[in-house]
């Protein structure tokens, strides 16, 4: 017995999609041969023409006296036996069910146990045959109300109740599936045993790891796989039949039967299930079976099978991945992949499944046209947390596009400046010696170590986040800015050359997530083009080396001082010509120069204690001090307090502390007001920080 779609033919168990539907449970009166009747509950009254027995639980005291007796089939008058089987649930319906082995999988198994001959009552198109009497030639779905009407007319219906149940549907056309007796080709479930054992031994690892349990749960309940399909396309089943009825398999087109040498041969008209053909993908693409063909290298199979990793969606774990594992292991003796990474479903920004009817589909082709394929790829990677569905929004893709633009500007800035100071892009230092170069290299090493670890564990979102923070938050925001402080230095050529070399390594780290942008920028920073030199993808992926933690601490202090001085300048809203720095750690001689350059203050001096009449910003590593002579601190304090009062009034107007308003306001309005509240709260925190500076 197989799953049969009256429109598309045979289906494997996994291709049947079950939907919960509100249907009806029909309680029918089946007359007893000795008089009276028994109630039978069914959801499919139209299949009664295929009934070959009634069945009760042997322990059900209500029906023990009926076991072995006979009932009369309504509308047909055919006599059928009443049998006993543990399969019957005494608490479902009336506790007595009909047995229709040709049209129900459970009844089919019951029929096998009790030697009941199946009676097929409709054909492959779902049209009733002669066994249905006056309903012959009607479609199975159209016939149901007519059969019920006839049963009611003759008094065979006791009652009809609403009933929620699972209905199997075809995954292609959503047509209700029929359990059907048909001759098809199957792959025995025993073929999968080797792959199951090797996965248990850890020869293939799943990411996230919980999918291993899902895989085993499904594989250990595997049934024989129906692999023949009644379709116009696909790999035709290589089974031939001669005029004498002998069947045989052949890779080539045979000319005669190997058993009787008959030359009248016909090939099976069915094709293989698409997923059966797809199961061969891991090795058929490498020339398996045809290694001598010109399109394959003689070593392809040996070099690339098994492969290191398969990346695919979790929704085809059983359709494709499990079947590639069983095909590879059974035919080649090895599982095709060492690692299997299953990514989650891409949803819209609100967590809803994308659907054309909802109008929330993000068309990747449109996004690629407007934002670029790298932006889409990077956004997906950044959101791809193991075990969680992705919430994709256009804002996240735009953020990724801004990232690519930032890298373009940084690359062009470095290339232009290196050229202007007499440097050569084709010969940049591989081992930095300048203070900034050594610091940038140390931070690159730290990032490389974390990125490689995340990649090895398939934490692509962490890879994307780490590179985003390093390349934008550190390289573009700080290293490039620091380089401007070296323009009048004798090290200027070295500094720009070292930063070019470090950015190229950063692009190599980023390349798997942004292949096109990184390729272009890598070639640009190499002073060449793809036509003239090897692709970035052929270069070695960076390896981490030792960090210089003391130097990193020094630059952390420098950055802390610059941020503090910028904050004070905004607060005072007046030019500052001199500042003082106290540091808790030793600073390099160039530190004060870099602080002065990036905070745009003419003179920055190191001191041991806070100068008198100065405004101070105390940090974890450094404290900065600015002379307050000539500045009206009282007026500044009043201005900041007035800003706080204004924000407090704004916050009160939002009405977010009113429970009645919160209960009635639309969700969209509340979200907008809460976003505004977050902005106000952030501004308040900044002003309070400034007030504390003035009061220190």
TrEMBL record:
It catalyses: tRNA(Val) + L-valine + ATP = L-valyl-tRNA(Val) + AMP + diphosphate. It is an enzyme of class 6 (ligase). Residues 632-694 form the Valyl-tRNA synthetase tRNA-binding arm domain. The keyword Metal-binding does not apply. Residues 438-570 form the Methionyl/Valyl/Leucyl/Isoleucyl-tRNA synthetase anticodon-binding domain. Residues 2-246, 260-393 form the Aminoacyl-tRNA synthetase class Ia domain. Its EC number is 6.1.1.9. Residues 633-690 form a coiled coil. SUPFAM superfamilies: Anticodon-binding domain of a subclass of class I aminoacyl-tRNA synthetases, Nucleotidylyl transferase, tRNA-binding arm, ValRS/IleRS/LeuRS editing domain. InterPro entries: aa-tRNA-synth_Ia, Anticodon_Ia_Val, M/V/L/I-tRNA-synth_anticd-bd, Rossmann-like_a/b/a_fold, tRNA-bd_arm, tRNAsynth_Ia_anticodon-bd, Val-tRNA_synth_C_sf, Val-tRNA_synth_tRNA-bd. GO terms for cellular component: cytosol. It comes from the Bacteria. GO terms for biological process: valyl-tRNA aminoacylation. CDD domains: Anticodon_Ia_Val. GO terms for molecular function: aminoacyl-tRNA deacylase activity; ATP binding; valine-tRNA ligase activity. Keywords: Aminoacyl-tRNA synthetase, ATP-binding, Coiled coil, Ligase, Nucleotide-binding, Protein biosynthesis. This is Valine--tRNA ligase. The lineage of its organism: Bacteria, Pseudomonadati, Campylobacterota, Epsilonproteobacteria, Campylobacterales.
């Amino acid at each position: 017995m197989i799953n049969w779609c009256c429109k598309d033919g045979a289906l494997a168990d996994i291709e049947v999609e079950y939907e919960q539907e509100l249907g009806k449970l029909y309680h029918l009166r089946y007359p007893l041969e000795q008089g009276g009747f028994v109630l039978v509950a069914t959801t499919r009254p139209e299949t009664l023409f295929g009934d070959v027995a009634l069945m009760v639980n042997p322990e059900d005291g209500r029906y023990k006296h009926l076991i072995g007796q006979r009932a009369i089939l309504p509308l047909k008058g055919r006599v059928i036996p009443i049998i006993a089987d543990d399969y019957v649930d005494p608490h479902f319906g009336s506790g007595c069910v009909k047995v229709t082995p040709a049209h129900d999988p459970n009844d089919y198994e019951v029929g096998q146990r009790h030697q009941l001959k199946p009676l097929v009552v409709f054909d492959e198109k779902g049209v009733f045959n002669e066994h249905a009497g006056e309903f012959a030639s009607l479609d199975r779905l159209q016939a149901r109300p007519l059969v019920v009407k006839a049963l009611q007319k003759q008094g065979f219906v006791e009652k009809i109740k609403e009933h929620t149940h699972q209905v199997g549907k075809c995954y292609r056309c959503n047509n209700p599936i029929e359990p059907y007796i048909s001759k098809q080709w199957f792959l025995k479930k025993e073929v999968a045993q080797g792959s199951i054992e090797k996965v248990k031994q850890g020869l293939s690892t799943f990411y996230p790891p919980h999918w291993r349990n899902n895989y085993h749960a499904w594989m250990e309940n595997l049934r024989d796989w129906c692999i023949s399909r009644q379709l116009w396309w696909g790999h035709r089943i290589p089974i031939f039949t001669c005029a004498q009825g002998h069947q045989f398999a052949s890779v080539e087109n045979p000319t005669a039967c190997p058993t009787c040498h008959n030359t009248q041969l016909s090939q099976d008209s069915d094709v293989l299930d698409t997923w059966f053909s797809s199961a061969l993908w891991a090795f058929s693409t490498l020339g398996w079976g045809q290694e001598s063909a010109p399109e394959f290298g003689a070593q392809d199979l040996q070099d690339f099978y098994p492969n290191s990793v398969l990346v695919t969606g979790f929704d085809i774990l059983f359709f494709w991945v499990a079947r590639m594992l069983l095909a590879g292991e059974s035919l080649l003796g090895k599982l095709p992949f060492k690692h299997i990474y299953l990514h989650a479903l891409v949803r819209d920004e609100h967590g809803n499944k994308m659907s054309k009817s909802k109008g929330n589909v993000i068309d990747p082709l449109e996004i690629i046209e407007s934002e670029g394929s790298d932006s889409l790829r990077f956004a997906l990677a950044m959101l791809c947390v193991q075990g969680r569905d992705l919430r994709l929004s256009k804002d996240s893709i735009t953020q990724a596009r801004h990232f690519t633009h930032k890298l373009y500007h940084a690359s062009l800035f470095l290339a232009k400046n290196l050229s202007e100071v007499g440097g050569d892009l084709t010969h940049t230092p591989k081992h930095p010696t300048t203070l900034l170069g050594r610091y940038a290299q140390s931070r690159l090493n730290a990032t490389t170590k974390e990125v490689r670890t995340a990649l090895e564990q398939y934490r692509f979102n962490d890879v994307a986040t780490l590179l985003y923070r390093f390349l934008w938050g550190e390289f573009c925001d700080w290293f490039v800015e620091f380089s401007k402080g070296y323009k009048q230095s004798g090290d200027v050529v070295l500094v720009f050359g070292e930063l070019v070399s470090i950015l190229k390594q950063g692009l190599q780290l980023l390349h798997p997530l942004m292949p096109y942008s990184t390729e272009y920028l890598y070639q640009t920073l190499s002073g060449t083009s793809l036509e003239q030199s090897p692709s970035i993808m052929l270069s070695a992926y960076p390896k981490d080396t030792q960090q210089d933690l003391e130097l990193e601490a020094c630059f952390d202090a420098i950055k802390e001082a610059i941020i503090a001085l910028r904050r004070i300048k905004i607060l005072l809203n007046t030019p500052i010509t001199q500042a003082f720095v106290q540091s808790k750690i030793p600073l390099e001689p160039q530190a004060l120069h870099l602080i002065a350059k990036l905070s745009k203050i003419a003179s920055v001096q190191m001191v041991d204690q806070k100068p008198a009449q100065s405004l101070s910003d105390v940090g974890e590593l450094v404290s900065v001090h600015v002379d307050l002579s000539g500045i009206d601190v009282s007026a500044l304090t009043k201005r900041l307090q007035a800003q706080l009062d204004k924000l407090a009034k704004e916050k009160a107007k939002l009405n977010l502390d009113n429970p009645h308003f919160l209960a009635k306001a639309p969700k969209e309005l509340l979200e907008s007001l809460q976003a505004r509240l977050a902005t106000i709260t952030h501004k308040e925190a900044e002003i309070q920080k400034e007030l504390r500076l003035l009061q220190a």
